[in-house]
Specification:
The complex is a heterodimer of chains A (484) and B (341). In chain A, 71% of the residues lie in helices and 6% in strands. Chain A is mostly helical. Chain A has a domain of 217 residues. In chain A, a hairpin with a 4-residue loop joins strand 3 and strand 4. Chain A is globular, with a radius of gyration of 25 Å. Chain B has 341 residues and is mainly alpha-helical. Chain B has one domain. Helices cover 74% and strands 4% of the residues of chain B. In chain B, the strands form 2 sheets. A two-stranded antiparallel sheet of chain B has the order 1-2. Chain B has a two-stranded antiparallel sheet with strand order 3-4. In chain B, a hairpin with a 2-residue loop joins strand 1 and strand 2. Chain B is globular and about 60 Å long. Classes of the chains: A mainly alpha (484), B mainly alpha (341). The interface between A and B is large, with 86 and 75 residues.
Chain lengths: 484, 341
């Protein structure tokens, strides 16, 4: 049997991008929280904040490493699996990727070294500066990759070169600020913020329930809850604006999200389905519950406003309706859950009883899975809703794969990725679990070891800092006691 | 000089930067199993700890720049070398993760597993880079299919004797380069041991270097075309030879920094030789020169090349600044302390 290169390449891309995308939003969201928490340390000089900052640095490094390792795959895959696409968009898309390398990756990877290895080598200020730079690098990275992806959704600032059969840039800034970039970027950042917040909430709730590191866990919990509540509410606003943007720029995608097969007759609004099962055969949503005119209202502030349905487009231009609908609604439902739970927690915080609500803390321990799924589902909706186009309206996905690659090769690489990623993920969880169980540790005050000019001079003169040797011994002891 | 030429040079610089920087940490990876005890292995890992990730970014940026400046080359080569690139990815992932996880758990079997994963990942990645360079030199079976230049060979067509020889040469070169780096970063008894290896790794390098040179001169007729046309190109050969001699001289005089820098210069010079051989092509077709991809027929539009040049001019000073800061902050000998691998 001939294996289908096209479908296998799609499967591989979905697999590798979804695994990759667990990590970047966590890097971004956690990065912001680390800036806040380390900033608190710098401001207050409290040793607890130092311990918190050090603890999260260790966790962050592990998340970051996974993001880097799985991210290189993505850059290669455009060329290996989607050669026709690469030829078509290289002139446009390539500059965004190259900018990401030059502006973001060097910044992140350089300062990450200071973050992880620099606690005993640089001053607290310099360390804080590095944390800010790594966080900024992660944000830069998201900018360029979302620019590139948004261009695929709403291409702008280009012309088609018919002889070479490719898109060429005519205006760099029109490409960067294409109609969907800003909306999508803001939404991606908010998604990252929610994930970072829920991640910290999960771990600090666990400590609170177990009665460990209580004082530090309360500090982390409060910072994360404040950010989580803010971001969850912001997601609602940003999501609303983004949906309007999709309606204006990618009508087939919006229609698929909402299961709108038929354009409503004049004077009748489009319904807003809360849930349901779109059926392409009957061209209707089955088992659904809808707010009549709801979609019209959300899009145009009028229950009777016309919204374009899928019937206005040829069938071969439809995205997979059910999958777009379900992933989109899954994200929405989770978004509502984030708002509900964070506001409830804020209410108890205001009442001063949040740390007594054990059920709430238990909910937070497991709720971290929610934002991971919501981030994934949101991207799935965005990408599935763009189908059958790889570049909306210009290049079909089925025409974009690599002609030089065989199905067998892709089959082989998929199996290898499955094995490798499963192994990686298990090992990663195991190590994370170990680090989390160990928790933040207060350091004996040895400020002179870190800050004084004497120490630097001693190092320059080739003497090992006594504090460093002590630290080494201390760590070995800690390892041993844990074994036992 | 036109934009296409500038981008040919910039890609060369990115590749040379990658080979020099990641070259030493790949080399340290290859040497990793040869130190005996756990403490020494941790010293090796920590010697590259703060740098390897940044070093790898040079490769990522090289890939991104190739995508943007010469999309035809990116598409043809990446899809044509599909299996080789996948193997490279697995090797790089394994290597990165081994480094990160190895010392997180104090159990002999755990550490042994990741030690071997790290060494194997480093060796396979290096070998594949070498094989890729070998293929760039010999040319590959590409021809026009439906208006695009596509690879029409198989994975095994990439593994000819010359390509494998260049692979082994890369292995030897990075091993030596990593060894010289370790001479700088270690102290005491471990330093004595790594210094003891230098004679062997240098010999291995020299032998493979001579073998590649002889094979190239004997069998690859086209490799000398540009040298005949532009005698000034011989300068790169002279630099590489002087650098190699200086490695030996520095080793004899016990100047590890001189040896390491000379090895870096040698790597840059080899990179230059590759560029001179290819110029103005990026992919040679061994079926018909009409199917070669060069800096004009494979390039993006002039507008894109210009935009990218602006990005590079704005960004590169920052990149060089961070790189220098990081190497300055983490200068000197390795200390196995807190927060390390």
């Amino acid at each position: 049997m001939e294996l289908d290169v096209y479908m296998l390449s799609r499967l591989q891309f979905a697999l590798t991008i979804m695994f990759h995308y667990i990590f970047p939003p966590l890097t971004i969201g956690l990065g912001w929280l680390m800036v806040i928490m380390e900033g608190m340390y710098l401001k207050t000089g409290e040793r607890e904040y130092e311990a918190i900052a050090r603890f999260w640095t260790g966790i962050f490094a592990l998340v970051f490493a996974m993001g880097v390792a799985t991210g290189i795959v993505m850059e290669f895959e455009f060329g290996t699996n989607w050669a026709t696409y690469s030829r078509y968009v290289g002139d446009v898309f390539g500059s965004a990727l190259a900018a990401e390398g030059i502006f973001a990756f060097f910044l992140e990877s350089g300062f990450l070294a200071v973050l992880v290895f620099g606690w005993d080598r640089v001053s607290p200020r310099m360390h804080f500066f590095s944390t800010c730079m790594v966080s900024l690098g992660a944000v830069f990275s998201s900018i360029w990759i979302v620019v590139a992806n948004s261009w695929q959704q709403t291409p702008a600032g280009f012309v088609i070169n018919e002889t070479l059969n490719r898109a060429e840039i005519t205006s760099f800034w029109a490409m960067v600020f294409n109609p969907s970039t800003v909306h999508r970027l803001v939404h991606v950042w908010i998604g990252a913020g929610i994930l970072g917040a829920f991640f910290v909430l999960s771990i600090s709730s666990y400590y609170l329930l177990k009665g460990r590191h209580t004082s530090m866990a309360r500090k982390m919990f409060k910072v994360a809850l404040a950010m989580g509540a803010f971001m969850s509410l912001a997601a609602l606003g940003s999501g609303h604006l983004q949906a309007k943007n999709v309606g204006a720029t990618q009508p087939t995608k919006l229609a698929a999200f909402e299961g709108l097969y038929k354009t409503p007759a004049e004077g009748e609004g489009a319904p807003l389905y809360l849930f349901g099962l779109p059926n392409d055969e009957t061209e209707s949503v089955e088992f659904g519950l809808a707010v009549p005119g709801g979609l019209s209202f959300l899009m145009y502030e009028s229950f009777k406003a016309p919204v374009t349905g899928l019937d206005q487009f040829p069938r071969e231009d439809w995205p997979p309706v059910n999958l777009s609908f379900q992933t989109y609604h899954l994200m929405m439902a989770l978004g509502m859950f984030f708002i509900g739970i964070t506001l409830l927690a804020c209410f108890f915080w205001w009442r001063g009883t949040v740390f007594e609500q054990r059920w709430l803390l238990w909910t937070f321990v497991f709720a971290v899975v929610g934002p991971v799924i919501a981030n994934e589902a949101g991207w799935c909706a965005a990408e599935i809703g763009r189908q059958p186009w790889i570049v909306y309206g210009l290049l079909r996905t089925e025409h974009a794969f690599s002609p030089a690659v065989s199905g067998g090769q892709v089959m082989f690489s998929i199996v290898m990725f499955l094995v490798l990623y499963t192994l990686l993920f298990l090992v990663w969880l195991f190590i994370m679990d170990k680090k989390i169980r160990k928790g933040p540790e207060l350091h004996e005050p040895a400020p002179e070891a870190r800050t004084s000019a004497l120490d630097v001079a001693a190092k320059l003169a080739g003497h090992e800092g006594a504090s460093l040797m002590d630290a080494g011994v201390e760590e070995n002891d800690a390892d041993k006691s844990e074994e036992g | 000089m036109d934009l296409n030429t500038i981008w040919f040079l910039l890609l060369g610089i990115l590749l040379a930067g990658y080979a020099i920087l990641d070259g030493f940490d790949l080399g340290v990876g290859i040497l990793h199993p040869f130190v005996r005890n756990d403490r020494d292995r941790r010293v090796l890992l920590n010697s590259i700890g703060p740098f390897w990730d940044g070093n790898e970014v040079w490769l990522v940026t090289f890939g991104g720049a190739m995508f943007a400046a010469f999309p035809e080359v990116y598409a043809t080569v990446f899809s044509g070398f599909y299996t080789a690139f996948m193997l490279l990815l697995y090797a790089l992932i394994f290597r990165a993760i081994s480094l990160e996880l190895r010392s997180k758990l104090d159990h002999p079997a755990w550490r042994r597993f990741w030690d071997w994963a790290f060494a194997l990942g480093s060796a396979v990645a290096t070998l594949l880079f070498g094989v890729a360079v070998g293929n760039a030199m010999t040319g590959i079976p590409v021809k026009e299919v439906n208006g695009n230049i596509e690879y029409v060979g198989t994975f095994f067509d990439l593994l000819g004797p010359y390509q494998l020889l260049v692979g082994v040469f890369a292995l030897a070169m990075f091993t030596m380069h990593g060894n010289l780096y370790l001479c700088l970063k270690t102290e005491g008894e471990l330093q004595q041991r790594v210094r003891g290896w230098a004679a062997k790794t240098f010999t291995f390098f020299l032998v493979t270097y001579l073998a590649v040179t002889i094979y190239t001169l004997a069998k690859l007729g086209h490799a000398l075309d540009n040298f005949r046309a532009h005698p000034a190109a011989w300068a790169a050969v002279v630099v590489s030879v002087l650098a190699i001699v200086n490695i030996l001289r520095s080793l004899a005089k016990n100047r590890p920094m001189g040896a390491f820098l000379s090895s870096a210069v040698a790597i840059a010079a080899f990179n230059g030789l590759l560029g001179i051989t290819l110029w103005p092509n990026l992919v040679l077709s061994n079926l018909d020169p009409a199917f070669n991809l060069d800096i004009y027929n494979a390039a993006s539009s002039a507008k894109t090349l210009k935009v990218m040049l602006t990005i590079a001019v704005l960004g590169m000073p920052f990149v060089l600044a961070y790189t220098s800061v990081i190497y300055w902050v983490f200068r000197g000998k390795v200390q196995v302390g807190k927060m390390t691998y």
